[in-house]
Design brief:
The complex is a heterodimer of chains A (about 400) and B (about 650).
Chain A lengths: L4 H4 L1 H20 L10 H26 L7 H29 L8 H13 L17 H25 L4 H20 L11 E2 L11 H28 L1 H11 L1 H6 L4 H27 L1 E2 L6 H14 L4 H19 L6 E3 L2 E3 L1 H19 L6 H7 L26
Antiparallel strand pairs in A: 1-2, 3-4
Chain B lengths: L1 H20 L3 H7 L1 H6 L5 H10 L5 H9 L3 E4 L5 E6 L4 E5 L6 E6 L3 E3 L4 H16 L4 H13 L6 H7 L6 H18 L3 H11 L5 H10 L2 E5 L9 E5 L8 H10 L9 H10 L5 E2 L2 E2 L6 H13 L12 H4 L5 E5 L4 H50 L7 H18 L3 H26 L8 H23 L15 E3 L5 E3 H23 L1 H11 L1 H6 L4 H26 L6 H16 L4 H21 L4 H18 L15
Antiparallel strand pairs in B: 1-2, 1-5, 2-3, 3-4, 6-10, 7-10, 8-9, 11-12
Helix pairs in contact in B: 4-5, 4-6, 5-6, 7-9, 8-9, 9-10, 9-11, 10-16, 11-16, 13-14, 16-20, 16-23, 16-24, 16-25, 17-18, 17-19, 17-23, 17-24, 18-23, 20-21, 20-23, 21-23, 24-25, 25-26
Classes of the chains: A mainly alpha (about 400), B alpha+beta (about 650).
Subcellular location (chain B): Cell membrane
GO cellular component, one term (chain B): plasma membrane
Protein name (chain B): Amino acid/amide ABC transporter membrane protein 1, HAAT family
């Protein structure tokens, strides 16, 4: 009899247990319900970090397991944020507008309310009409569905076009980067219908909720933790089965898998679309905590940083992605927060706010060169796992194949 | 006593002169003495005309002196003189006719004639006829400029009169051209205007269009009550883009053909006004939360006679359809407007053709910029297969090198000549260092190369930001590259773009020469095709890779100097071009310089084309271009010019 899923993958259980402990600990220490040792803004930072961990898991699935270096997943992340942001903004403005119109002598008509909301939301881009994309903004259920559907559909169409014409490797990376750039540039326009470079703002206020931010932040923190747990579980389940074996095969030798009779394109498309949906959910949880979503979030650089997190954490292992995202984004915000004292080196003073990016860039080069298995590789050292000795050759001939030093026996 | 004496003498002189010569300037001035003293714009015309038409040689002088506020009137006798202010409130007076000084007088005994700006403009117009025949060609050209700046009907006659005597052929051509333009605008004879329009049709000058357009100014009016002679262009239906419903209805109201009706807001206000005890027209207020309910309540109020009548049948959109609206030319003559329309159509077609040509030039120059930015990449990525995300930073490094050189060498021409080889050297060294330290270890691992070079890219960008700050640094082009090559009023191209085009051609030649005619090129091609075989032939692949990568980086550095000449040099300079550069190489086809050329041409043309379709929105242009490229890759995944067979490598 086969072992149970958990028994075969003890790391999943360990991860979930640690996540639960962490969530519990933060809840106890936070202002909302506990002893107030952790400030509300730091709870938000932790919640946001968990969303970033979730999208890193998605990135690991597509890059680490399927070998597709997508430089466009932040586009899906941003789209998810936009979808939930539309409802939050519409609903909040509606409550405000209804409150002020109720002061009038006559009860407001439906048209008057919609027109007033339009003026409120789009006044900043010199318009007052609702564009077509806001058609479902009044319905939470529909917008929640769109959080998954819009990124999923975009990924489906883009992936179908790209995989069908056998665009692979670096070309695909550049193409996904171009997609992100196109989307960001499109959203930057004022007439895109999503408020141009102003983006959607005021998302931290839940409409109709009286609770203080210290409590709301914990709700989102829990939701983020839950989403991360479920996402991690889903990803672990996917990669543990036959499906996972096939996509790993595609990563290491796509041609061979195709000759074995698998429809490589369908597998790739499925993973690409699924990870886009996960990214959308992560974005929908991230931006209400950040409070604002604008096109700059979708800029190509964000997606490259995503790849950086996964690479530093160790690609091809799910906990590596989580560690990488959490470690790099927390350390980044620590360094760029200006709390580190300057370092005086003779005539040169290192101000970490300015020099952190350089350190990050160079450490990234070093990780790529000398430690392709990233931080996750430390666990292998600890457990005494060895790398396969292929005399310098990687696992497969393909560009996305796992490198000798990344793999474990 | 003296004053009286002088006055008497002057009077005597005046009389004798008037008798002797019949007309002096002074006599003309005296004839219009009152109007000149009054200085009113409305009445002064007669005086100016009289002076200008007197045919006296001093007429021009008098007008100039008058306009320059140098004309003084003597208190006692009211004679006019040219006055020159001396020290101590003394003014030396000169007689207009003789030009002789007639002595000094105290300011208190004089009246300075100060024409206001309206009068000065009239004098200026009168002066034009003198200036048009001035012996100095520069003055004549200035007079023509003045006419073109503010054309007027009364300038036509003096201009025509001055043409036959014009000695300078170039000025004569210009005069005739201006005469044609004035004729079509102001000649009283319609036939002459039509002839002038037909003579000049197809002319591309901005002045021609500026003359024709006012002839074709139209306004939209109600057809009722329009005189039969009106020059009607077309009938306009309300709701047409030119005539909104509200505007049409306002016109009807103004003509007394319709009553102002309360709009939804006004009706709402009236409802509120007539509400009492939570009821209006017997309907509870809280039920009025739809437009239909509000309309019903209002109709009830109207039936009770409490508010102005209103019904859906009397809505503006219904009422306006019962009337005709027409677009009428301000110009009364139909023949003239027809000729002008035809001429303008022809001009617009020719302008369109020229604009297309201009757009083509723009596209060509954009394509050469992309080609320049991408050519280094065509070597490192296209030939070697190394994906270098820091390529843009090499471009930036080249631009900053140019900036640093300009800090040391002030002469711009010399500094550019020094900067180009220096930028090559700097980026060549940086490229070699990067190849040795990083890329060498990652050959055949393109995804890892991408990420590692990206790490270098962000580090270099931040380093540049730390050193040079975030503000843009100037890299000034030499003076001889300023300005533009102007073909006509529509087509022009700046010299700097021509220079970049030439530079791109030079690089293309250089690339072809190195790859096809030199040892390095041969060895590079050998190493890219089969490194092990090349190695067994005695080629050192390590060295060749290093040199080739250095060459690609060095060319990026020179491109940086060129791009820095017209773009702002910032630390983000490179990242602005990196995606476009990769697109250029990928669209064109990897491994083939002609492909890169084709890719640059296609992307440049496409971007300019889309910008032309939607000129207000360059962001949208880039979006659509990228989408187009994504779709294009579907059909030609290996680019425009795809390598085939063994050279393709798979």
């Amino acid at each position: 009899m086969r072992d149970s899923f958990v028994a075969r993958h003890p790391s999943v259980l360990i991860f979930l247990a640690l996540l639960a402990l962490f969530t519990l600990g933060v809840t106890v220490l936070a202002e909302g319900f506990g002893i107030g040792l952790i400030s509300t803004s730091f709870v938000k930072t932790l919640g946001k970090t968990m969303c970033l961990c979730l999208i890193a898991v998605a990135m690991d699935l597509i890059w680490g397991y399927c070998g597709i270096l997508s430089l466009g997943h932040f586009a899906f992340f941003g789209l998810g944020g936009y979808m939930i942001g539309m409802w939050l903004m519409y609903e909040r403005t509606r409550l405000i507008v209804e409150g002020s119109l109720a002061q009038g002598a006559l009860p407001p008509t439906e048209q008057e309310i919609v027109a007033a909301i339009g003026t409120q939301i789009f006044g900043v881009v010199g318009s007052s009409e609702f564009p077509l994309v806001w058609a479902f903004a009044d319905s939470l259920a529909l917008q929640l569905a769109l959080v998954v559907l819009v990124p999923g559909l975009l990924a489906l169409v883009f992936g179908w076009l790209a995989f069908r014409s056998r665009v692979t490797g670096v070309y695909l990376s550049i193409l996904t980067q171009a997609m992100t750039l196109a989307l960001a540039l499109y959203l930057f326009q004022n007439d895109s219908g999503l408020r141009g470079n102003n983006g959607l703002s005021g998302l931290q206020n839940l409409p109709g909720v009286e609770a203080p931010q210290s409590v709301v932040s914990l709700w989102f923190f829990w939701a983020s933790a839950l989403a991360l747990a479920l996402g991690y579980l889903l990803a672990a389940w996917i990669v543990s089965g036959k499906f996972g074996s096939v996509i790993r095969g595609i990563r290491d030798n796509e041609a061979r898998v195709r000759f074995l009779g698998y429809s490589v394109e369908i597998y790739k498309l499925a993973v690409f679309t699924l990870t886009a949906c996960i990214a959308g959910i992560a974005g929908a949880l991230y931006y209400p905590q950040a409070g604002i979503v604008n096109p700059a979030e979708i800029a190509p650089i964000a997606s490259i940083y995503l790849a950086v997190w996964v690479a530093i954490g160790g690609r091809g292992r799910l906990y590596g992605a989580v560690i990488g995202a959490a470690f790099v984004s927390l350390v980044s915000s620590w360094f760029t927060g200006g709390q580190i004292p300057d370092l005086a080196l003779g005539p040169l003073t290192i101000r970490w706010v300015d020099w952190w990016t350089i350190v990050l860039g160079l450490s990234f080069v070093l990780v790529t060169l000398f430690a392709p298995s990233g931080i996750g590789g430390l666990f292998d050292l600890w457990q005494g796992r060895r790398h396969p000795d292929r005399h310098g050759a990687d696992l497969g001939p393909n560009a996305g194949a796992l490198r000798e030093k990344e793999a474990t026996e | 006593m003296t004053r009286l004496m002088i006055a008497l003498t002057a009077l005597f002189l005046l009389c004798t002169q008037a008798m002797a010569q019949d007309a002096t300037v002074q006599s003309v001035l005296q004839a219009h003495r009152e109007t000149i003293e009054k200085g009113s714009r409305k009445s002064i015309g007669a005086a100016i005309d009289a002076i200008a038409a007197s045919g006296l040689p001093q007429a021009q002088d008098v007008l100039q002196v008058w306009a320059a506020k140098e004309m003084w009137q003597r208190g006692g006798d009211g004679l006019f003189f040219r006055g020159v202010e001396k020290t101590g409130r003394q003014v030396e007076l000169f007689d207009f006719d003789s030009g002789q000084s007639v002595g000094m007088l105290d300011r208190d005994d004089l009246e300075q004639i100060k024409p206001n700006s309206g009068v000065r403009a009239l004098i200026g117009t009168a002066l034009v006829q003198f200036q048009l025949s001035d012996p100095d060609p520069i003055r004549r050209a200035e007079a023509l400029d003045a006419i073109q700046r503010s054309p007027a009907a009364e300038l036509l006659a003096p201009l025509r009169a001055s043409i036959p005597a014009e000695p300078d052929p170039a000025l004569k051509d210009r005069k005739m051209r201006v005469e044609r333009l004035l004729t079509m605008a102001y000649d009283p004879d319609d036939q002459a205007r039509i002839t002038a329009i037909e003579d000049m049709s197809g002319d591309l000058g901005v002045d021609m269009r500026a003359t024709l357009n006012p002839l074709l100014v139209t306004r939209i009016v109600l057809a009722e009550g329009l005189p039969a002679t009106a020059n009607i262009r077309r009938e306009v239906k309300p709701g047409d883009p030119a005539l909104g419903l509200a505007a049409a209805y306002d016109m009807l109201i103004a003509a007394g053909l319709a009553q102002p009706i309360p709009d939804a807001e006004a009706r709402k206000a009236l409802l509120i006004e007539h509400a009492a005890d939570g009821l209006v027209a017997g309907i509870p207020l809280h039920q009025l939360d739809t437009q239909a309910a509000r309309d019903a309540a209002y109709v009830q109020l109207a039936q009770a006679g409490l508010v102005p009548r209103w019904s859906t049948a009397e809505a503006p959109e219904v009422v306006v359809t019962r009337h005709r609206f027409v677009e009428v030319y301000n110009e009364p003559s139909a023949a003239v407007t027809e000729a002008a329309e035809q001429a303008l159509d022809e001009i617009e077609m020719r302008v369109g053709l020229n604009q297309a040509f201009d757009l083509g030039l723009d596209a060509l120059s954009l394509a050469s910029i992309y080609f320049l930015a991408a050519i280094g990449l065509a070597i490192t990525f296209g030939v070697m297969g190394v994906i270098n995300m820091a390529h843009g930073e090499f471009i930036m490094m080249g631009a900053y090198t140019g900036y640093m050189v300009q800090q040391v060498i002030a002469d711009h021409t010399l500094s550019i000549l020094v900067a180009i080889p220096l930028a090559f050297a700097v980026t060549f060294a940086a490229g070699v260092a990067m190849e040795r330290l990083v890329i060498r270890h990652l050959y055949n691992r393109p995804l890892e190369t991408l990420l590692a070079t990206f790490g270098i890219s962000i580090a270099m960008q931040q380093l540049a930001k730390n050193i040079f700050g975030t503000q843009a640094r100037p890299l000034t082009a030499p003076g001889w590259l300023d300005g533009a090559w102007v073909l006509n009023d529509v087509v022009s191209i700046s010299y700097i773009r021509i220079a970049i085009f030439v530079l791109a051609l030079i690089f293309l030649g250089l690339f072809l020469f190195i790859m096809r005619r030199t040892r390095l090129g041969l060895e590079t091609r050998a190493v890219t095709q089969n490194p092990r075989m090349a190695a067994s032939m005695g080629i050192n692949p390590d060295r060749i890779n290093m040199l080739t990568f250095g060459l690609g980086s060095g060319i990026a550095g020179i491109a940086g100097v060129a791009i820095g000449l017209f773009a702002k040099v910032t630390s983000e300079l490179g990242s602005d071009y990196i995606v476009q550069s990769f697109m250029t190489v990928v669209v064109g086809g990897v491994g083939n310089i002609w492909g890169t050329l084709a890719g640059a041409a296609m992307i440049g043309t496409l971007q300019k084309g889309i910008e032309w379709l939607n000129p207000s929105n360059t962001l949208a242009a880039q979006t659509y271009m990228i989408i187009f490229i994504i779709i294009f890759i579907q059909f030609r995944p290996r680019g425009i010019i795809a390598l085939r067979g063994r050279a393709a490598g798979d």
